Amino acid sequence: MEEKEAEREKEAVEREERRWREMVEWEERRERERREQEEGLEREAREREERRDREMRETGKKRQGDKGERRVTTHSLSIYLCWDFHCFMLFYQHFIAMLMSRVLQ
Fold first, then answer.
1. Which of 72, 52, 74, 76 is nearest to 64 (CA)?
2. In this structure, what is the dihedral angle of CA atoms 85, 90, 91, 92, given to the nearest 10 degrees?
3. Record's superkingdom (predicted)?
4. Furthest-apart CA atoms within the chain: distance in Å
C-alpha cells in the first residue's frame, strides 16, 4: 500500500515537474519568437530608411521637411538683430508714451 502510494506520489511530482518544464519552455519560445519578430521589424525599418537615404543621395533631393544644415549667416543674423531692435524700440516707444501720459495728467 505504501509503495503504491509512494509510486503515485512520485508520478504526480514528475507530472507536475514536466508540466512546469513545458510551461517554461513555451514561455521561452514565445519570448524568443517575439524578440525575433521585433528584431526583424527593426531591421526592415532600418533597411527601408537606408534605401530611402541612398535614393535621396543619388537623386540629389532632400527629404520632405528636411531643411539641411541651418547655418547662421551675417544676413540671417542681421535680420534677427534688426527684428530684436525693432521690438525693443516698440516697447521703448510705448513705455515713453505711458510715462508722458502720466506726467501730463
1. 52
2. 80
3. Eukaryota
4. 117
- Report which of 18, 22, 41, 20 is spatially closest to residue 30, judged by C-alpha positions: 22
> What phi and psi values does residue 66 have, to the nearest 5 degrees?
-90, 115
The cell 503515485 sits on which residue?
Answer: 8
Q: pTM for the whole thing?
A: 0.41
Amino acid occupying residue 41: L
Q: Would you tell me how many other CB atoms lie within 10 Å of the CB of residue 56?
A: 14
Q: Which residue shows C-alpha cell 527684428?
A: 83
- The DSSP code for 45 is H
What are 13-70's pLDDT values in tens digits? 999 999 999 999 999 999 999 999 999 999 999 999 999 888 888 887 665 555 556 6
Name the CA radius of gyration of the chain, rounded. 37
**Distance between first and last Cα of the chain:** 115
Separation of alpha carbons 38 and 46, rounded Å: 12
